[in-house]
Design a protein that fits this description.
The protein is an alpha+beta fold. It is built from seven helices and eight strands, in the order E-E-E-E-E-H-E-E-H-H-E-H-H-H-H. It is globular, with a radius of gyration of 17 Å. The chain binds zinc ion (ZN).
Amino acid sequence: MTEAPDLATPIVGWRVWLMGWDEDGPTLVSPVAPFTWLPRVAATAGCRAGCTQAPTWDCHCGLYATADLRLVAPMVISAGAILGCAALWGRVVEATDGWRGERGYPLVLFAPTVDGRDRRRRDLALAFARTRSLRLPGSRPADLPVAASTAALGRRYAVPAHPLPAVPRPAVWESDVARRATEVREEAARGLGARRLGDRDADARFARTVGAMLAALQGG
Ligand SMILES: [Zn+2]
């Protein structure tokens, strides 16, 4: 078995989380495992199959992210999952549709606001979120994000967090959005070091690409 490469420069990809909750507020929870990405701490991959250092090539472990927004869009549309760009670094393995990394942290978050009038969609999303977040230690079942919890997520994780004005229909994701999403992902990676050093211009460049993507998602 070949060793996974150890990346000094993070890779940035799209992924989703469900919203969890602990005594201090909302948290980001993996949609596939009972695992919380803690605020202001790099998430570290573990492996339930027994890899001593996740991820490995021949396993499914690691923190996931993809370059293709369309692969994660269905989770946002149907399950009210929180969309975001995450940096992955440390050991990073190329997976079928993206990457699996050893360490990760979100760089920007987008939380869907489910229209309360669309009862069926709302009930489906809630049922999904609750099923997935059951029995998380120290966590109560996730609710769907609302504007207040989206802002709280941003403050807790110290990253920009934006409400998605509505749950966008699949067709919207195809058009201009894919191109705008690529720009967000690329700028998230390109300006990462400068933003961390307090470079306001880098913050503004990133905010502009995010704004353009949000406008595209609204069909603007
Ligand atoms: Zn493994």
